[in-house]
Amino acid sequence: MAGKTVPILVVLGVIVLFWYVMAVVMNAPWQQTLNARANLTDVPFTEFVGQTFAQDKPVLPAPHQVIGAIWNGLFGSAITAPRSLAYHAGITLGATLLGFALGTLLGVLLAVVIVHNDASDRSLMPWIIASQTVPILAIAPMVVVGLGAVGVTGMVPKALISMYLSFFPVVVGMVKGLRTPEPIQLDLMRTYNASAWQVFSKLRWPASVPILFASMKVGIAISLIGAVVGELSNNAGGGLGVRLLTGSYNGQTIQIWAALFIAAALAAILVILVGWGEKLANRRMGVRA
Amino acid sequence: MTSVVSAKGLGLVFKTGDGDVQALSDVNLDIDKGEFVSFIGPSGCGKTTFLRVIADLEQPTEGTITVNGTSAAEARVNRSYGYVFQAPALLAWRTIDRNVALPLEIMGYKDSAARVAKALELVNLSGFEKKFPWQLSGGMQQRASIARALAFDADLLLMDEPFGALDEIVRDHLNSELLKLWARTQKTIAFVTHSIPEAVYLSTKIVVMSPRPGRVTDIIDSPLPRGERPLEIRETPEFLTLAARVRDGLRAGHSYEE
After folding, report:
1. How many domains does chain B fold into?
2. A201 Cα to chain B: minimum distance (Å)
3. What is the CA radius of gyration of chain B?
């Protein structure tokens, strides 16, 4: 870990520096307009740079502006207040987790059916792949509006969109995972006259656990994307997607960036948590460290 | 003596993409209770296929086979044999004791712990209960897989080149261990190999097979004493005569035309 710290910090430093430079470049035209209107001429360069970092609605907010907005959003108000980013992150998190759980369950169930039935292997798989070629941005509003029309609002429609995205890596991974056992291991179970359930629970399922975790890492990250996209279709319920949406309506670029970073951090935390689950499972299953 | 395995006119044809393959042709064989029968022959002679037919893992296309007086399918359903594969086929996520307990779990045995301990003791693996398979050498893994086949006390043990992947020193050791185990447990063993010394050393009966089509060319009853045999028996004239006969049988049945 220690060996990684320096390179990571160097890369981070380069990114931040590039960001600050771009903030000056991109905010300069509007700052010049503002200064001209105020009849401010001959503003020294250092002062001008400071101005480009302090706009209300910059084209590109400076990193410290975004960090300030994140800090305020998380700790500046009560966690239940609609101004609180933590509140919105909580709403998105709920939909993400529900959608992820449903998606993982659906993915595993489909994989079990596909592995145990040749006909469904041939008939289901093309549809599953086709489902992911449809742009989620096109489907999300239909799901949200359609379910809203029959009175289902709030977390469930967003969770369904998360499910729609996250079942895919799980089903593809688990079809492979459940087929990991070698022919002689399947023969072995046959010599014991093991039932289909025993073959599944004692051989196929444990053999597929590593792939399940790998799939879930992908699944939970895109679950979050699904929830955010769902929120973009309906600005009533709150959530990070709603913050992105209202931010873009009002030109609140700082708010957009803050929400983006919170969403990214949330995704990272969720993936890390799944990774911990993976480590725990590995230890119990005696995987060579 | 009662026949544990009895094959009459047994044949098996595999249908493959480029035509039929006659894996077994007109095999007639009886294995009596308590015997140690080796099947020896070059690749493609059908020795493994025959073992798999006994185990009901392959279906014969001609002739009949009975195992323990029933059909092979019934014998499998009755769990009347233990099968040891070429590879240990241990489940990587189970410790050794839980691997050995696998058949017991599936068959619903209540006295699993005692049986596991006894089976591991028979293969000299006591003390390795809590190791995972990757922590054991190849020879120990194969012994664990033998313990797994012994755990539910089937009278018939089917072994498909169990020591084929091991080096000769380990193989010698496991061979003498296997003979001791056979003497202690009084099981009937059907053992596939392509090593002449292994077949002669272990067996009470040697079945020599040859390929294209897979068939039995010679059945030799061993004059060597039953039960434990010291490894040095392999230097005796009886042993060498027997080995020569097996080699002749293999040579006669094998054509080098291709």
Report:
1. 1
2. 11
3. 18
CB contact under 8 A, A206 and B95: no
Q: What is the pLDDT of residues A13-46, one digit of tens each?
A: 999 999 999 999 999 999 999 899 988 888 888 9
Which residue in chain A is spatially nearest to B102 when comparing CA positions? Answer: A202
- Is residue B45 within 8 Å of residue B214, measured between CB atoms? yes
Chain B nearest-CA residue for A184 = B89
pLDDT above 70 covers a percentage of chain A that reads: 99
Whether residue B88 has a cis bond before it, omega within 30° of 0: no
The domain of B230 spans: 1-80+158-169+190-258
Low-confidence ranges of chain A (pLDDT < 50): none
Interface contact A37, partner B, CB < 8 A: no
Query: In chain A, which ranges are continuous DSSP H helix?
Result: 2-37, 45-52, 63-75, 85-116, 118-131, 136-149, 155-178, 183-191, 196-199, 205-232, 240-249, 253-284
Residues in chain A: 289
- Which residue, chain included where needed, has tokens 């725990």? A280
Give which of B52, B67, B74, B61 is closest to B26, Cα–Cα.
B61
Contact criterion met (CB below 8 Å) for B39 and B47: yes
Residue pLDDT, tens place only, A238-278:
899 999 998 989 889 999 999 999 999 999 999 999 999 99
DSSP chain B: --EEEEEEEEEEEEEETTEEEEEEEEEEEEEETT-EEEEE-STTSSHHHHHHHHTTSS--SEEEEEETTEEHHHHHHTT-EEEE-SS----TTS-HHHHHHHHHHHHT-S-HHHHHHHHHHHTT-TT-TT--GGGS-HHHHHHHHHHHHHTT--SEEEEESTTTTS-HHHHHHHHHHHHHHHHHH--EEEEEES-HHHHHHH-SEEEEEETTTTEEEEEEE--SPSS---GGGGGSHHHHHHHHHHHHHHHHH-----
Instruction: Give CA angle at B51 (B45, B54), nearest 5°.
Output: 135
Residue B258 confidence (pLDDT) above 50: no
Facing residue for A192 by CB, picked from B79, B89, B92: B79
Q: How much is the pLDDT for B1?
A: 52
* CB-nearest partner of A286 from B89, B107, B132: B132
Percent of chain B whose pLDDT exceeds 70: 97
Contact between B106 and A288 using a beta-carbon 8 Å cutoff: no
Q: Does residue B225 come out as left (phi exceeding 0), alpha (psi in the -120 to 50 range) or beta?
A: beta
CA dist B234 → A272, A280, B167 (Å)? 61, 52, 18
- The answer to the question of residue B250 being in a domain is yes
Please give the single-letter amino acid code of residue A152: V
Amino acid symbol at A174: M
Give the CATH number of the domain where residue B195 resides.
Answer: 3.40.50.300
Structural domain contains residue B10: yes
Query: Nearest-CA neighbor of B129 among B184, B177, B118?
Result: B118
